[in-house]
């Protein structure tokens, strides 16, 4: 379809995209906004259901993949400033996409759960969430499981912080996290919880099972009922004077050590 121009910030397509800054509108429509060149390109390459792309006129010649995408999808050229009003960031890159939220079926078959999982309990910061999804993707996880108390994975800041990994890895919010963990155990998973009162992570016994690693809320950690559902609780040793590690940093260290363990078994 041809690339079409939009000249007014009051155009219906622009107004719909701008409304998606609100959580209630994202929930009502099932749509969200992906921002930035890298993120939008990953959405297109991954086969995500992109409804439309808003692109500043001056960027068209700089992004050769846009014209190929426009043969099947909608691209709207807009004057400078319109993308700023849609974007959630202070320094937008002149491109946003309206994307339909995927409904990943993480439980459909054992094949969907082929590797380690990252489990998040009440993670509140969207930037942290996006970084955690990106980290899980890099460490070869097959998915990310989120409690209902977590920030929504399609929050614009979370999508942006994932640097495209949101479109590579299923991120599923479940109604009952404890029940989901029990289901994982029935499917052969060993569930580890990151807990400041746990045993030394590096002194853990070798375990050949697939792993599900739980990371908790930035301030309060993992809820007690979720801790009780874990098979083991581990902490990273703090060797200096820092009180603790950022949740995403701790998850990255643990996930990659689980990868190392699996390679040595």
UniProtKB/TrEMBL annotation:
SMART domains (alphabetical): SpoU_sub_bind (SM00967)
The family database entries (Pfam families) matched by this protein are listed as:
MRM3-like_sub_bind (PF22435), SpoU_methylase (PF00588)
Supply one GO CC term from the record: cytoplasm
Entry keywords, A to Z: Methyltransferase, Transferase
Asked if the keyword Secreted belongs to this entry, the reply reads: no
Tell me the ranges covered by the RNA 2-O ribose methyltransferase substrate binding domain, including all copies.
33-105
Record-linked SUPFAM superfamilies? alpha/beta knot, L30e-like
**Cross-referenced PANTHER family:** RRNA METHYLTRANSFERASE 3 (PTHR43191), RRNA METHYLTRANSFERASE 3, MITOCHONDRIAL (PTHR43191:SF2)
The protein's name is RNA methyltransferase
Q: Lineage in the entry?
A: Bacteria, Bacillati, Bacillota, Clostridia, Christensenellales
